[in-house]
Write a structure and sequence with these properties.
By secondary structure, this protein is an alpha/beta fold. It has 4 helices and 3 strands. A 3-stranded parallel beta sheet has the order 1-2-3. The protein is globular. It has one domain. 24% of the residues are buried.
């Protein structure tokens, strides 16, 4: 898994870059802020046969969502990330 900081989002900002990463990794772990700005990264990564595991979801930092549960649900069920890292597994959303 290739972890990507929100300070270096340009490492995964195109389908071509993700195809190149797929030559040596099986997945990417972008900071969740990267996917807030460029949600297409999920479909680009999947097209390159990479898994997507964003990080880190915390109740104290729900991003643009009303709650961390809503934030995780959006990434899982709308964007289609494969899994995620959270400090609050008790708030993990159930399938719809």
């Amino acid at each position: 898994m290739f972890l990507v900081s929100d300070k270096t989002p340009d490492r995964v900002d195109s389908p071509e870059k993700l195809k190149a990463i797929a030559a040596w990794a099986t997945g990417i772990g972008p900071n969740k802020a990267i996917l807030e700005k460029t949600p297409d990264i999920v479909s680009w990564a999947h097209a390159a046969k990479l898994t997507v595991t964003p990080w880190t979801f915390r109740a104290s930092q729900p991003g643009k969502s009303a709650s961390v549960r809503d934030e995780m649900a959006y990434l899982l069920f709308t964007l289609g990330v494969d899994e995620l890292f959270t400090d609050n597994p008790d708030l993990f959303p159930q399938t719809k």
